[in-house]
Amino acid sequence: MFAVYAEKFSPDDPLAGLVVGERPDPVAPEGWATVTVKAASLNHHDLWSLRGVGLREDALPMILGCDAAGYDEDGNEVVVHAVISDPDWRGDETFDPRRSLLSEKFQGTFADRVVVPRQNLVPKPASLTFEEAACLPTAWLTAYRMLFAQGGLNAGDTVLVQGAGGGVATALITLARAAGLRVLATSRDEAKRARALEIGAHEVFESGARLPVKVDAVMETVGRATWSHSIRSLRPGGAIVISGTTSGPKLDDAELTRIFFLQLRVIGSTMGTRSELEKLVTMLDASGARPLVDRVLPMTDAREGFASMAKGDVFGKIVFTR
Ligand SMILES: NC(=O)c1ccc[n+]([C@@H]2O[C@H](COP(=O)([O-])OP(=O)(O)OC[C@H]3O[C@@H](n4cnc5c(N)ncnc54)[C@H](OP(=O)(O)O)[C@@H]3O)[C@@H](O)[C@H]2O)c1
User: Fold this and answer.
1) Which segments of the chain have a pLDDT < 70?
2) How many Cβ atoms from other residues are within 10 Å of residue 301's Cβ?
3) Residue having the nearest C-alpha atom to atom 9 of ligand 1
């Protein structure tokens, strides 16, 4: 079948190991389902994989892609939950030490078909297109858990979203606004700041700019480049929820003094549960909020999408269709 896969790792030139070609048809084990992929979305995770982060060399060649929406064997429209937990695991899947994301241990979604445990299928409502639904399993689910499960935020709270242009960041802005939060966002780029206002931010600022108010929580995916500003933007007792370090994990100053003196909370967040994905789908269905799709490309042009993400030339999600 057609597939987009990683053939080798290249830390400095991730696209060098990307192949748009053919891979064997997947075979669904007992209890697993075969999904015919209609749309899949690109995540920074796919670039990390090509750089050799989070993927083992002996797992190559590996079909990339965590997110997909399509049809199950009975023709039902489904969204795929990308977290594959151990069959014996009970409870919150994100705490399973043996969990993996699609494309880490099991073949990913950038292909004609993908096999996943049947319990990982979530019904897709007719109100969401396949392209929109394909944005949800990684970036949007991560944003949902950061805000509502780990952040515990409610209507009326003020939140800062760093790096407004990213897939997770645009999801954070849209979801926070839909839930009645006051949303502040930063971006290095003026055009991205303007677009952040269009999708729901109340106020936007240049990266690193002093904010007019201290916020209840900061949603952090950028890491080193914004960490200090994030800590300095919090009110006493506020929380920083972190799910990524795009600009690198090594901090110049962790702001430890400020963290203890202002009694700040630092909370990690990773992906989300199947149940949270179901709630996210319901929230979008009911609220009319929709993922921001930067562009839709045929999966055969996947290389173009990867190149744009590597350059940071993206606002919202890049979606591949079959
Ligand atoms: N833990 C999890 O479960 C999980 C799930 C999803 C994603 N992640 C991680 O979260 C991060 C974001 O993922 P994504 O898919 O949203 O990636 P993305 O779409 O590529 O987001 C990149 C954004 O980060 C900002 N950024 C990058 N470098 C920066 C720098 N030096 N200074 C300031 N801002 C910078 C940019 O914002 P501006 O250009 O607007 O400034 C850019 O738009 C990735 O590291 C990813 O691995 C983790």
Assistant:
1) none
2) 14
3) 244
